[in-house]
Each structure stands twice: as structure tokens, then as C-alpha cells.
Write a structure and sequence with these properties.
Elements: H1 21-32, E1 33-34, E2 37-44, E3 53-57, E4 81-83, H2 85-99, E5 103-108, H3 115-126, E6 132-137, H4 140-144, H5 146-153, E7 158-164, H6 169-176, H7 184-196, E8 199-204, H8 214-227, H9 229-233, E9 236-237, H10 244-253
Parallel strand pairs: 3-5, 5-6, 6-7, 7-8, 8-9
Antiparallel strand pairs: 1-2, 2-3, 2-4
Bound molecules: iron/sulfur cluster (SF4).
The site of iron/sulfur cluster has 10 residues, from loops.
Amino acid sequence: MTDLGQSYPRYLEPGFTPFDPLALAGRTEEIVCQGDRRKYTKFYCPGVYGGIATGYTCGCCLRCIFCWVNWSRDFPEKYGFFASPADAFHRLSRVARKAGVDQLRISGAEPTLGKSHLLALLEKVESSPFRLFILETNGVLIGADADYARQIARFKKVHTRVSLKAGTPQAFTRKTGAKPESFELPFRGIENLLKAGASFHVAAMTADPRFVNKQERQSLIDRLASIHPALVSNLEEEVVSPYPTTLERLRHAGVRLAPNER
Ligand code: SF4
């Protein structure tokens, strides 16, 4: 099989069938990973974090309705090119040198797909002159694999940003398409990172009442506080930005973006 088949939605539409994100992760890895090579769509230096050389990965295990990532998330077989850990590091280094920055990042869809690729890349970063590497993730795979968190924690230059999508199981399914029982996986990912002593913080769309109401926000905060109070004080609360891909996915899902007022 060369694509995702019929078992998983590309993007959410009304009446979708909730899916197992770990099964989707496995299926997507068959498309975007070959040995320790992994698919990327581009490398460049955006202005976020004060300028950071970034590799944009291809393919994800969720289907968030507010996702800004290009269509490589939905159709990973059609986009991107394979890069080895050495090639990805070389591309990141070149972009960083050209832009005069000393920090690197992997973002885009879900960077933790392809564990062997990511860990080999982090080895290269750790022994390089670069100061910091930011790993952005939805936390699903780290929640299913405590060893993944321990491996990431070995790298002192790596800081992980775990982006939570919802505060209740029902909202998680509505916004990501994943089955409600998988709601706990990102929280388990946070527990695993904490236990492993990794450098990380948590982000959520909790500053956007169009997507997270007061009760859901409180529920998310209570769940984080039950793990560790510092997770709440360090919570990065953000809003949904109206990127063209975001608006298109919202349209498919039948959701209208109202003005942003709490
Ligand atoms: S927002 Fe992140 S976790 Fe959600 S579908 Fe997009 S890339 Fe995946």
C-alpha cells in the first residue's frame, strides 16, 4: 500500500469515524520513514523564537481542525523528500549559518514520527556548536513510549514543547479526530518527560475562547496541575491563527471561525 488507504480521514468532515492515533502513526511512518531517513517538506529560518533554523516534517497522527501545516499532513505520500539524520543536520546547519542564528528546530507536522531518525539527529545536534534545539510535538508517541522520553532527556541541548489540543476526551475527539480514550496519551507524554528529567514546557490553545471554553480550559489546567503545579505556571496559552490551511480545514469540518472575543 502506498498511501493511507480508506481507514483514516485526511481531514475531518462532519460524521467522521474517530481513529486510533497510534495506528495512524504507524501507518504514516510506513509512508514518511525509510530506515532512519524521514520525509521533510522544507528547511528555512522563520522569525519565531527570535529566528530559528527549522526543518518541516511530513505526516501526523492527529487531524486537528485548526492545524496550520500544509497539505503534506493530509497527503504525506504526495509531498516531501527523504533526508537522513546527517542530511537533515547539514540542511539545518546551512540555514542557521546563513541566517546567523544558533538554534535549531523540527516542526511542521509530527516530528516524533520516525524515532530512530529523530534520535540520530539529536545526537548530531548535541555534539555540535549549536546552542539549542526545540522539538515541537503533540506528545502522543512520547505518551505511548516512556523510553522515548528517556532518550530525549539524554540531550542537554533539547527543549521539548508539548502542544495539547483539548481539555476533555470529547473535545479531543471533536478537534483532532482521535478516539476519546487517546485523550490521555499527551498527558502521559508530559508525565514521561517529567519523570525522565527532560527540559520541556506545555502549550495549548486555551487563550482562544472560540476553541476552548472556560470549563474546558479549567479542566485542562486541573489535569496539568494534578501532574505538577509548575506545568500550569509555565503554560504557554495561544490562539488559533487564520492561516489559509487552517481556514480550509475548518471549512471542511463545518466550523466557522467567529471573531476572537472572550
Ligand atoms: S496541529 Fe499539530 S498535532 Fe494537530 S494535526 Fe497539525 S501537526 Fe498534527
